[in-house]
Design goal:
65% of the residues lie in helices and 0% in strands. The protein has 98 residues and is mainly α.
């Protein structure tokens, strides 16, 4: 049985955080008013504090540093495959010379 999870865009998250920071408001009240699961708003606040500029990159997007890590891993994999091809070619040509 598949559970449908609610998805919230960046603007919604930022507005919920702003509302939670208003004087006289608390996190659980804002969560109830916006129909957000308990603890979700606290997690959003922590994520924003940890990385204010890239806290909510959006679906399918990575933070800049994560994107670079992904790119470097792909580049490393390609380089390793090229190295392995060259090794096999060297073995092949070395046997051919005997």
């Amino acid at each position: 049985m598949k559970v449908n999870r609610k998805k919230y865009d960046t603007e919604f998250k930022l507005e919920a955080i702003r509302m939670a920071k208003e004087p006289g408001r608390n996190i659980s009240e804002v969560e109830r008013n916006l129909d957000i699961s308990k603890g979700t708003l606290s997690r959003w606040i922590r994520e924003q504090k940890a990385d204010p500029e890239y806290s909510f990159p959006g679906k399918g997007h990575l933070k800049a540093k994560d994107e670079e890590i992904r790119r470097l891993r792909l580049e490393l994999k390609k380089t390793q495959e090229e190295r392995d091809i060259i090794k096999k070619a060297l073995v092949y040509f070395a046997e051919d010379q005997k």
